[in-house]
Amino acid sequence: MALFPKPAETQQLGLFLLNKRLIRIFLGVAFFVLVVLGLVWRQQHDALPVLPPAPGFDEPPGFYPYETVSDYWPVSLDPTGKSTQDLCATFPKHMLSLVQPVLKMGHGEDRTKLDAQLDSVSACFRPDELLIFSDLDERIRNFTAIDILAGLPPKYYDLEYNPDIGNYLLQKELSQNGTLDKDQEATKKVNGWIIDRFKFLPQIERAWLMRPNKPFYFFYETDTYVVWDTVYRFLSTFDPDVPIYMGSPSPGRHDSSRDNLKTWFANGGPGFALSRGAVKALLRRDVAPHGQYSGPTVSEEWLPLIKDECCGDSVVGWTLWNNGVALQGYWPMFNPHPLHGIPFSDRYWCQPIMTLHKTTPKDMVEVWKWEFGQRKFKRPLLYADYWNFHRPGTSDTLDNWDNGDWDASKSGPEQGIDSFEKCEEACKKDDSCVQWNWRGRDEKVCVLARSFRYGEKREPEQRDDKWVDYKSGWIKDRLDKFRQERQCEVVEWVGPSITRVF
Ligand SMILES: *[C@@H]1O[C@H](CO)[C@@H](O)[C@H](O)[C@H]1NC(C)=O
Ligand SMILES: *[C@@H]1O[C@H](CO)[C@@H](O)[C@H](O)[C@H]1NC(C)=O
Fold this sequence. Notes:
Elements: H1 10-18, H2 20-47, H3 84-88, E1 99-104, H4 111-118, E2 131-134, E3 138-140, E4 143-147, H5 166-176, H6 184-188, H7 192-196, H8 200-210, E5 216-221, E6 224-226, H9 228-235, E7 245-247, E8 249-255, E9 261-266, E10 272-275, H10 276-283, H11 298-301, H12 303-306, H13 312-322, E11 328-329, E12 355-357, H14 361-372, H15 383-390, E13 398-399, E14 401-402, E15 408-411, H16 420-429, E16 435-439, E17 445-449, E18 456-457, E19 461-463, E20 466-468, E21 470-474, H17 476-485
Parallel strand pairs: 1-2, 1-5, 2-4, 7-11
Antiparallel strand pairs: 3-4, 5-10, 6-12, 7-10, 8-9, 13-21, 14-18, 15-17, 16-17, 16-21, 19-20
The structure holds 2-acetamido-2-deoxy-beta-D-glucopyranose (2 copies).
Keywords: Glycosyltransferase, Membrane, Nucleotide-binding, Signal-anchor, Transferase, Transmembrane, Transmembrane helix
Protein name: N-acetylgalactosaminide beta-1,3-galactosyltransferase
InterPro entries: C1GALT1/C1GALT1_chp1, Fringe-like_glycosylTrfase
């Protein structure tokens, strides 16, 4: 379009400009053209991002009747006395073509957690199969942890603009001059948690760059327990070219451009999955007519937000939302509870487990081995199956033990309850109560819960000048009755929901 005349045309143009009537026509036409161009521009920009389904996905009634099979072979074996190698020989390696595992860690993290992760959930992955992203380049066993914070857009390293990055730069310096971990005083100054949020978007970019076009990417952390058999079964039922973002829903930012609609993100701890379609939607950049990128990378674009936000998982949710991808909440398949803290009840007894969070290092390794003896060909492992690991509710009362206060009510001396025995009595009187917990000495609190939890050892604690000790009990009859009545004839696969939450 010759809106801007070339020099050779200027003489002619001079004559042209003399004619006032023609000028008016020209201006009219120009105005019309501009209006049309403006409308086209607006339409294109309104169409992107696609309006996400609002306010999210509703839970469909009933359960999905997915028929799935295990790809492990043999599907199960007695794990007693078996080595990791023996167990991993049954791992369905071909499923790595379906799901790319991506483990995020930090150099400063507790190494027992990392070791437990590599001895359980990640034990069957070879170094060329698992991606490990960290805040420092280092060799871990035979894996190479990649410093995902190196090579970010320059603005990230501007200490005035983004002061928290100083923790990363200091760690790098200490590593380079050989004092990291050796000089404890200096190492203590590195706050690894505070830079964790910067890893979330770059890890998605890098996973795509290193392993492009995988149908699904599964992002998890050192203390995430992942049941790969269930992941493979479940993700096999989805079209990877549809933008899918799934995980355990947490409330995120409000979208001011859409009536302050509340958005959701996947809590990073229980892990999250992205389909190829979702990664593409997230990483899409504007391109100039000659092919050069004209827009920023996703890491660059969202730095102004990340630098002042608490957590990286919420930023992933928000950026996906802004690219037209809303979270599909799959709690409790993605469960923020640890194994010892699962509140077993009627609520999701017959549903499959995909992930757990903050399971103890010891439990991670033990339940992982145990799983090899439990797997079934035609149905995934359910909460009902995992109950068998700790068998909560079958034990006698336990001193110095805390079975928790999830889904519970509290009472005390004001209600005439001033001892462990009185607390037990109160539980027995309440038909919905299945376990109780007495917080004694100075505290005097009776906790009555509606779900069976294993819980954990808890020694007496002093807070200010007050002491508290913990004693737990379970009503075994109610557990037996419940288990007899609740046989899992159908696998209760749930649909996506952001109203069914943790
Ligand atoms: C690491 O690799 C070496 C050489 O391939 C191999 O012999 C060794 O068993 C591996 N170690 C682990 C922990 O996988
Ligand atoms: C290593 O780097 C840190 C941080 O800059 C510095 O404080 C320390 O003195 C250095 N140590 C050596 C041995 O160079």
